[in-house]
Amino acid sequence: MQYKTFKDNIKLSRLGMGVMRLPVLDGDDSRIDYEKSQKLIDQCMEQGINYYDTAYIYHGGKSEEFLGKALAKYPRDSFYVTDKYNFQAEPDYKKQFAQQLKRMNMERIDFYLLHGIQDAFADEMVSNGCIAYFDERKKAGQIQYLGFSFHGSAEKLRHLLTLYPWDFVQIQLNYYDWYYGDAKELYEILEEADIPVMVMEPVRGGMLANLNEKAAKELAGCGNDKSQASWALRWVMSQKQVQVVLSGMSTEEQIQDNIRTFSVNEPLTEIEQNSIQKAAKLQYEAVAVACTECRYCTPNCPKKLDIPYLLKNYNEAKLGGAWRITHLLKLPEEQQPFACIGCKACMKHCPQSFEIPKYLRELSDMLQKE
Fold it and tell me: What is the CA radius of gyration of the chain?
């Protein structure tokens, strides 16, 4: 296992275990299969993984309790636990934090985050006193390092960095979002601020471990037998600001494959980097609306909708879930996808002849279900 030195000279495994996709009983996410899940934690510990990431809402609130029990047989200084304050689930941060310590039966949480900050509720969340309270808990020794995980805009990220001397920030980072999302911009903001980056979704919710035929063929053409997931993980590790790469491993086979990837330092060659970029393009064209944001459509929309922006959110919802785009509901009604009247004026000017009204209807349907 490779390790990287963090603050205070502590060494963190480059691979972290995300405790959110554990084996469950009868398909019920809140009923963790303790026997199978314990074996996974034991396997991780045996292989040198020392970073374990849970949250208040994972597995219906049962992940924290399981993790505390699963790690109880190991010396407390042999692992680091990450947990998160979820503003949407329980705004009372004092109550939630106390409950988390009790669930895990621990006196401290090593890495604590404000969970999944989005533009829609960021200001309300950070102005409720939680940062000052968690800073107090840090000074009292109940939190070792304080940070936040983020699903928002570059502008909001820059603002959050001015509020507190954060020890780390967790973002969604993978080669797909680097080329077809905002991951590159977010990463570079943190790199410029010299803040360690913890990575979630390195294989984009499993998408980069199950590429379409053309994308898979592109990577296979590099001439080795590495798994698709390993390509994604090696790409993330190549970003120098990255500290820990989280993987929600749910099988022994996934752990074994990831351990092989993280056991050696194998930088990507220029040829491999180019193949990854080509694979990202092939995957994007297969699963998303490949809008180039030329904006030929917008001057002709009678409702003056920002069509490229809405299509970008459509892609995000299709690939990552509609929960990621609920911020659209904060827009004025005349700017929301519901305002589309289906006149098809946009299609007449789209160089790629996209069925834009159809996608905006789908986007509206996804928002209504949230």
Answer: 21
Burial 193-212 (b: 16+ CB within 10 A, else e): eebbbbbbbbbbeebbbebe
- CA–CA gap between residue 103 and residue 60 (Å, rounded): 13
Give pTM, 2 decimals: 0.82
Q: Where does the chain have alpha helices with state H? A: 34-46, 63-71, 93-104, 119-126, 130-139, 154-161, 175-180, 183-192, 213-220, 228-237, 252-262, 270-287, 307-320, 356-369
Query: How remote is the C-alpha of 20 from its chain's centroid?
Result: 12
Please determine, for residue 127, whether its predicted confidence score (pLDDT) is greater than 70.
Answer: yes
Query: Helix/strand/coil (H, E, C) string of 103-164?
Result: HHCCCCEEEEEEEEECHHHHHHHHCCCHHHHHHHHHHCCCEEEEEEEECCCHHHHHHHHCCC
Cβ neighbourhood burial of 26 (10 Å; 0-12, 13-18, 19+): exposed
Instruction: Name the token pair of 358.
Output: 């159809």
pLDDT over 90 at 292, yes or no: no
- Rounded to whole angstroms, the Cα distance separating 174 from 179 reads 9
| Rounded CA separation 340/303 (Å) | 7
Q: Residue for token digits 């001397």?
A: 165
Condensed to tens digits (0 to 9), the pLDDT of residues 268-291 reads: 899 999 999 999 999 888 777 877
